[in-house]
Task: structure prediction
Amino acid sequence: MNRPRVLITRPDIPSAALNLLKEQCDVVIWEKPEPIPKSALLSKIKNIDGIYCLLTDKIDEEVLNAAGPQLKVVASMSVGVDHLDLQALKKRNIKVGYTPGILTDATAELTIALLLATSRRLIEANRAVYEGEWKAWSPTWMCGPGLSKSTIGIVGLGRIGIQVAKCLKSFNISKILYTSRNVKQEASEFGGEKVKLDILLEKSDFVIVTIALTPDTRRMFNQDTFKKNEKICYIYKC
Result:
């Protein structure tokens, strides 16, 4: 019995996944640790039964036509599927796999790290030390605003926004404001208050944006948006 042939578009994927595929399938791998060029993808995908791809690989009509009718599954190591032509895949009855939720904790943790690094000016201070700017201790040198007793606004309280808010509980935050189409029951865990975007921008010391980039959200933040908060405000997109 012939084993399925699977194209893996990057060599630098977790070894556990690669070994699992090799046990059951004949594996074809793009050997360079960089996105596979479209021309190479079109060439290698012929007579392939499955694709293991990343968000850097656009799987569209042209690719599916080049693959042929034997292609049965496209699995993407990504949370989103913007790079996949879902209509074209559905039309061909090709199964789609992806990894929703797998990066929720990691993204929330990195958001908190970025929040602390910028508010407490860690990157600036590190650079200043290396460049010889630090001479002696000063009570106000590189003394950025703290999170304690601050108001934090979260634009879009989905999986990541909720996890960020839960992580912030231990920092003695005064208030967490959020925007969402609906009141989130999970917000009761951290005292979150649903408000309109204008109010969130006006009241927040820090703003964290966790909504997806779509035609509706593109350019949501612009010069007029930033004018709605006259005090110092840090904005983070995760």
In short: The domain at 103-236 is CATH 3.40.50.720 (Rossmann fold).
